[in-house]
Amino acid sequence: MRIDEKLKQIGIDLPNAPSPVGSYVPYVRSGELLFISGQIPTVNGELLHHGKVPEEVSLEDAKKCAKICLLNALAHANKALQSLDQIKRIVRMTGYVASSEKFTEQADVMNGASDLAFEIFDEIGKHARLAVGVYELPLGAPVELEVILEV
Q1: Which CATH number goes with the domain that contains 18?
Q2: Cα dihedral sign for 146, 79, 41, 137?
Q3: Domain region containing 75
Q4: What is the pTM assigned to this prediction?
């Protein structure tokens, strides 16, 4: 099944690729790898949630933010490749979670993105991952996600 058909089947509309919020490009292709710059949870140019998890953003909302980060990354991949069917594998995701003191559930937050990757891509969505707690993220975002794809 084509990825665009799979997205429709599970009720997901791929967003427009968000503009970078700094002096960088949203993606770089090197050989068979596509590196997607860090994506924050923006919807129509607006940050969905602000603040630290779980103090200002609940665990469930943070997981939703991770999903949106993945969708934003896939929007860039679609722009770069002209079709998500060009993706051979999600190689690695690196997730950053703006964390309140003593919060240790960063991996659970990033499961939002990982579980969605598995749902969309099946076996090729299985990836290596890093989930890191940080003090602050750009624009006060609770989550940021970087993705490396084999294409």
Answers
A1: 3.30.1330.40
A2: positive
A3: 3-150
A4: 0.98
